[in-house]
Each structure stands twice: as structure tokens, then as C-alpha cells.
């Protein structure tokens, strides 16, 4: 049975291999243009910075150099039920320097399309066992991000040789470049 998390709540991840599923619905009629939300992963070291540029996994770099993180591809519309984008994680392969994995969703070309997370609803992130399809953790964003164009859904971090997930739900005005500036 999945554990439903609240913002700020932390929970141990008791599986080395799992999938991060991210989903959302959008109100395309409010802007006249379609939404394209993008999931991205930042693999960080003790200094809270990317291990190297290649450890930024997103639609143009689908696999980390250690093969521990694999993005299954960009969903350009978010149409349909269930996960809109997925990221496979195998912690048994992750670079030994890695201590944190940040999960971020940004709105592609948000400024020019005049879009923000206030126009996005039913956003969630879940972690499930890929072999059994069993959902382990789920976090649903409940806040209304009326001006933010990016949200850090959560982070997976290592403490005392144990990996845990923290539900963040932290919004930011900006896009991928702002997160690259933060973590690079």
C-alpha cells in the first residue's frame, strides 16, 4: 500500500530499483496554446552541485553516465491518465559521490506562452517498484502556484547509507536555466 506524503514529509525508500512517475493536467483553453511540462533530474554531491553536466538528466540527456537514472522521454502534451513522464532509477549503479537526486518539473517556454503552475492541476509524483508495479510513495501538490513556472517536487537523499524521499513542493519563477544556475 502506498504512503501518501504531505509537503515536508520524509520517508525511506526501501528498494534499490524504482520508477518515478510524474503526472499533471492542464487548462490549455486559458492561454490559447498547449502546455509542455518537462521532468528533469539533478544528481548532486555533498556540495549540493551537479557531479558533472552529464548528471543533469532531462529530455536532451536521457541517461546519466553511471546508467543509474534514465528518463523515458518527453511527453509534449500531458494528455491522458496516469504518469505523463517517468524516470527509472537504480541506486545500486549510482555514482558513489551522489548524495541527492532532485526532481523538478518546468513549463517549456512558460514566459513566451504566458503559462504558470496556477494553470496546472492534479499534479502528482509517485515512486513505484517497476518489477511489481507496486506504488511505494505518492505526493500530490496541493498548493496553487499562481506565478511559479517550475516546481521542485521532491528530492531523494542519502543519510547514513540509507536513501530517503522528501516531498518538497517548492515553486520557482523561471525555468531549467534557473535550476542549472542553482545546481551548477
From TrEMBL:
A Pfam family reported for this protein in Swiss-Prot or TrEMBL: TerD
GO biological process: response to tellurium ion
Superkingdom as given in the UniProt entry: Bacteria
InterPro entries, per database record: Stress/Tellurium_Resist (IPR051324), TerD (IPR003325)
UniProt keyword terms in alphabetical order: Tellurium resistance
CDD domains in the cross-refs: TerD_like (cd06974)
Domain TerD residue range list: 1-183
Protein family per UniProt: Belongs to the CAPAB/TerDEXZ family.
Identification of the protein by name: TerD family protein
Organism ancestry: Bacteria, Pseudomonadati, Bacteroidota, Sphingobacteriia, Sphingobacteriales
Amino acid at each position: 500500500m502506498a504512503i501518501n506524503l504531505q509537503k515536508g514529509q520524509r520517508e525511506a525508500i526501501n528498494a534499490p530499483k524504482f520508477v518515478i512517475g510524474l503526472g499533471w493536467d492542464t487548462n490549455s483553453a486559458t492561454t490559447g496554446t498547449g502546455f509542455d511540462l518537462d521532468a528533469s533530474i539533478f544528481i548532486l554531491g555533498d556540495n549540493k552541485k551537479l557531479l558533472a553536466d552529464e548528471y543533469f538528466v532531462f529530455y536532451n540527456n536521457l541517461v546519466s553516465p553511471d546508467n543509474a537514472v534514465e528518463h523515458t522521454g518527453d511527453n509534449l502534451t500531458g494528455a491522458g491518465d496516469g504518469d505523463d513522464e517517468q524516470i527509472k532509477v537504480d541506486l545500486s549503479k549510482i555514482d558513489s559521490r551522489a548524495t541527492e537526486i532532485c526532481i523538478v518539473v518546468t513549463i517549456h517556454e512558460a514566459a513566451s506562452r504566458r503559462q504558470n503552475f496556477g494553470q496546472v492541476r492534479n499534479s502528482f509524483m509517485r515512486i513505484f517498484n517497476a518489477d511489481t508495479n507496486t506504488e511505494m510513495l505518492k505526493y500530490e501538490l496541493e498548493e496553487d502556484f499562481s506565478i511559479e513556472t517550475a516546481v521542485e517536487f521532491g528530492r531523494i537523499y542519502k543519510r547514513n547509507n540509507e536513501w530517503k524521499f522528501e516531498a518538497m513542493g517548492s515553486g520557482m519563477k523561471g525555468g531549467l536555466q534557473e535550476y542549472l544556475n542553482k545546481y551548477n
